[in-house]
Specification:
Two copies of one chain form a homodimer. Chain A is α+β, with helices and mostly antiparallel strands and about 130 residues long. Chain A has a domain of about 90 residues: Phosphoribosyl-AMP cyclohydrolase (Ubiquitin-like (UB roll)). Helices cover about 15% and strands about 35% of the residues of chain A. Chain A is built from three helices and eight strands. Chain A has a four-stranded mixed sheet with strand order 2-1-6-5, with helices on one face. Chain A has a two-stranded antiparallel sheet with strand order 3-4. Chain A has a two-stranded antiparallel sheet with strand order 7-8. In chain A, strand 5 and strand 6 form a beta hairpin. The longest helix of chain A is centred in the N-terminal third of the chain and has 10 residues. The radius of gyration of chain A is 15 Å and the shape is globular. The model of chain A has no long low-confidence stretch (mean pLDDT about 95). At the A-B interface, strand 1, strand 2, strand 5 and strand 7 of A face strand 1, strand 2, strand 5 and strand 7 of B. Strand 5 of chain A pairs antiparallel with strand 7 of chain B.
Amino acid sequence: MAQSWLDELKWNAEGLLPVVAQDASSGRILMQAWANREALATTQKEGRAVYWSRSRHKLWRKGEESGHIQKLNAIYLDCDADSLVYKIEQIGGIACHTGRQSCFYRKLVDNAWQEIEPVLKEPNDIYKK
Amino acid sequence: MAQSWLDELKWNAEGLLPVVAQDASSGRILMQAWANREALATTQKEGRAVYWSRSRHKLWRKGEESGHIQKLNAIYLDCDADSLVYKIEQIGGIACHTGRQSCFYRKLVDNAWQEIEPVLKEPNDIYKK
């Protein structure tokens, strides 16, 4: 992968950058995950959001199990070249493995984390064997 | 700081979490930075975005030099309790130290990072001595 746009990024000690996935139409922030060089290159090549799974230590094509694919609209880079935004279209309208639209479903209210959005689909129904 | 809502977070090995600052009215993603426990507690207490500066190794009250304070609207937490969103009002309309509205002013176009937004104020005019 001799692509110069990948060489401009300041990967951290683990070879990763934080990525925020934002719904291209609503502007809602759906999740935050991580990309290594291969994940980012694959995202650009395949036109869908691909991350590096730190828990499973492998490439994670978002939606590969759930069907909740994220179609890529655009990739943005910040001033320090160490953070990315994927603007995406969320297939199925669910980004979170809990079955909610967004992973950021907890809001700080009166010094406590309050769940502020509903489960749209039960995880057991999403991750059927 | 014996606050249980802070104890629920999964701080990384350096005691930090990634934070995304999002404009509360437009939904625009303005920047991504980091918070430690003290930065987050201070954000909640003071009602303005506070980060941990990894380069300066100290608490960073956003806008302390530039005047570009971020008034806090709400704090959101993700499903894994390891990523935060600050919804904020960006005073001065400029979040980036380059003088742009957002730090994410580069977009990947034809395998190159293209600057897609203007400098609203020259950094020399922002960071006057």
